[in-house]
Specification:
It is a single chain. By secondary structure, the protein is of the alpha/beta class. The chain folds into two domains: 1-88 and 239-325, Isopropylmalate Dehydrogenase (3-Layer(aba) Sandwich), CATH 3.40.718; 103-233, Isopropylmalate Dehydrogenase. It contains eleven helices and twelve strands. The strands form two sheets. A ten-stranded mixed β-sheet has the order 2-1-3-12-11-4-5-10-8-9, with helices on both faces. A two-stranded antiparallel sheet has the order 6-7. Strand 6 (124-128) and strand 7 form a beta hairpin. The protein is globular. The protein starts with a strand and ends with a helix. Bound molecules: adenosine-5'-triphosphate and magnesium ion. The site of adenosine-5'-triphosphate (ATP) has 19 residues, from loops. Pfam families: Iso_dh (PF00180). Its EC number is 1.1.1.42, 1.1.1.85. Belongs to the isocitrate and isopropylmalate dehydrogenases family. GO terms for molecular function: 3-isopropylmalate dehydrogenase activity; isocitrate dehydrogenase (NAD+) activity; isocitrate dehydrogenase (NADP+) activity.
């Protein structure tokens, strides 16, 4: 069976790390049909549109999408792309690696962030001069979907600790519903879980990340807590993410287009390659995903390393070393 993968490198280092991930995928014994699409600043300059219709269609029709980064036009590219794949769950692992400097070397966390509502519902208005409001939407359906996804993810990936993050003591209606729904899902599944107030959780994640595994969050909390955890393990160049929908999914590094180093050939390809490993898991090739993660981890430990990790290797050197270990 051939898997059709939409490859959208975008801008800046997206043009460098995306081909690196494709090279790694090509080294596996799986048949992929990679189809490249344009998006981002350069595309907008050329065509007037940051995300042309044919790129949208490409992502819609593919089995999965690999996306690099977009610069100024990021919001015009990634938000509609997430919509195209029907993404409701943003999966953001933050794992510390042996041999690398990290604030907390025992971190192995996965944030499962609700990706469609909460304070990012887009319902904002200026109701009078100098007075603005925002409507925070939480629905039972979306809360159920994200909780089901989070518990399933924990089970499939061997995480014992599942934490439901909320602030139901203050946002009684909205987070009350989120918490109640997620707890009901846990009980139906017979799954163990903890709940945590998101502010206290922010502190505990810094002092004792080893106490946590999968953290299921409403939208804004997931956005902030996962960035916090990114700081714990050190380095934007390391962090992958997945946007998973009911039928389709998009995989992208957490970092952006990094214009300061773009074109120099020294971008760290790790985040993008680990995003490709998440894509392998999603397509049912968990063992290959593990192989890619093991090879990447070994190279992070032994080198070569790119300058952001204190080395002097190029993107291509690191990619070749990972493929060699595969
Ligand atoms: P954008 O607007 O596209 O997000 P940015 O200027 O915010 O661009 P980021 O990509 O978010 O840049 O990166 C922030 C910093 O982290 C930059 O200094 C960048 O060089 C560095 N960085 C990000 N990703 C990588 C990577 N893969 N390898 C090396 N350095 C990186
Ligand atoms: Mg940025």
């Amino acid at each position: 069976m051939t898997h059709r993968i939409a490859v959208i490198p975008g801008d800046g280092i997206g043009q460098e790390v995306t081909p690196a991930a494709v090279e790694v995928l090509d080294a596996l014994d799986i048949e992929f049909d990679f189809v490249e699409g344009d998006a981002g600043d350069a595309t907008k300059a050329e065509t007037g549109e940051a995300l042309p219709q044919d790129t949208r269609e490409l992502a819609r029709g593919a089995d999965a999408t690999l996306f690099g980064a977009a610069g100024e036009t990021a919001a015009d590219v990634i938000l509609p792309l997430r919509e195209v794949v029907g993404s409701f769950a943003n999966v953001r692992p933050a794992v510390s690696y042996p041999g690398l400097d990290a604030v907390q070397p025992d971190t192995d966390l996965v944030f499962i962030r609700e990706n469609t509502e909460g304070v990012y519902s887009g319902i904002e208005s200026e109701i009078a001069d100098g007075v603005t409001t925002l409507t925070r939407v939480i629905t039972e359906d979306a809360s159920r979907d994200i909780a089901e996804f989070g518990f399933e993810y924990a089970e499939t990936n061997g995480y014992d600790d599942v934490t439901i993050a909320h602030k139901a003591n203050v946002m009684r209606e909205t987070d009350g519903l989120f918490l109640e729904t997620a707890e009901a899902v846990a009980e139906e599944r017979g799954a163990e879980y903890d709940t945590a107030l998101m502010d206290a959780l922010a502190m505990h994640l810094i002092t004792h990340p080893e106490d946590y595994g999968v953290v299921i969050c409403p939208n804004l909390a997931g956005d902030m807590l996962s960035d916090l955890a990114a700081g714990l393990v050190g380095g934007l160049g390391l962090l992958p993410s997945a946007n998973v929908g009911s039928e389709n999914a998009l995989f992208e590094p957490v970092h952006g287009s990094a214009p300061d180093i773009a074109g120099e050939g020294v971008a760290n390809p790790t985040a993008m390659i680990l995003s490709a490993a998440m894509m392998l898991d999603h397509l049912g090739y968990g063992e290959d995903g593990d192989r890619v993660r093991d090879a990447t981890e070994a190279v992070l430990d032994a080198g070569p390393r790119t300058p952001d990790l204190g080395g002097d290797a190029s993107t291509e050197d690191v990619t070749a070393a990972i493929i060699e270990r595969l």
